[in-house]
């Protein structure tokens, strides 16, 4: 079952007539999927001859800057004036990898007030109805996979080349935990096969994303594993917490703790992993779990003002790290 139904595609084709000015935006705190799907769609639209810009709320993390076009993304932190004028004059705004305007941080009001038609393409739960056209597939492992499926539905699969396909491969790979999460389906591998046929070098994407440690980053992870990782609930739940002070000690750079929560989940017998990080005066919390009847988004939503997928969710705590850890132990 494809979400790219004929009727909706016809509307999209209609929007794309008369050479519209297109802007692609994605959620705040960019990740492999938001940046990968944005750049994949960008290169596709450019190849089709459209006028298109990518505008993100904040800069992409360092481990994605090797992607073709990453340096041309206009971010609201450094280029707010330019971003504002692009969004105001846009005819079409593609909203990727989020489904609620509150998810785009400092660009939220610009998005809400923009006169452009808004097209949402996303895989998160509970899409809001703030968009003119919605392509939502909450079973998909990534938005990047949906972009490939959209290009295919537009009968443009032969247009995909290495430049278009590489960021899309990167988005699927990072959001699916390198093709291992339960969200990965035969369709995911079929999409990946199409990207490889188009000339994408998968090994290069893996190396570029995963073999990029700095010494500080690796030592921070070593410290987190050696000194901070604990097991609770009879060894079923792994817990790691890092305060601002600890992060500073290891010269923390954005992205340095990416994936740290998965270390806990790799321990034999552990079915839940929780990572707490002090950031901008609050405690940000990542939840991961294994298994079909082990939802962590419920905990994230009910107690920590967040949400997400059943096996991968996030939340926050306004208070001290000690309080956050106490609350976690209490609600578990
Ligand atoms: Mn995603």
Note the run of SSEs as H and E: HEHEEHEHEEHHHHHEEHHEEHEEH
Query: What is the structural class?
Result: alpha/beta
Query: How would a crystallographer describe the biggest sheet?
Result: 6 strands, parallel
Count of discrete alpha- or pi-helical segments spanning 4 or more residues: 13
Taking all residues together, what is the mean pLDDT?
96
CATH architecture tag of the largest domain: Alpha-Beta Complex
Oligomer: single chain
Indicate the low-confidence ranges by residue numbers. Answer: none
Q: What is the overall silhouette?
A: globular
CATH fold-level assignment of the largest domain: inorganic pyrophosphatase (n-terminal core)
N- to C-terminal separation? 37 Å
What binds here, in terms of ligands, is: manganese (II) ion
CATH class of the largest domain: Alpha Beta
Task: Give a structural overview.
- The strands form two sheets. The chain has a six-stranded parallel beta sheet with strand order 3-2-1-4-5-6, sandwiched between helices. The chain has a six-stranded mixed beta sheet with strand order 7-8-9-10-12-11.
- It has two domains: 6-210, inorganic pyrophosphatase (n-terminal core), CATH 3.90.1640; 215-331, Diaminopimelate Epimerase, Chain A, domain 1 (Roll).
- Helix 2 runs parallel beside helix 5, helix 6 packs antiparallel against helix 7 (186-197) and helix 6 (162-175) crosses helix 8.
- It has 332 residues and is an alpha/beta fold.
- The relative contact order is 0.10.
- 40% of the residues lie in helices and 19% in strands.
- The mean pLDDT is 96.
- The protein starts with 5 loop residues before the first helix and ends with a helix.
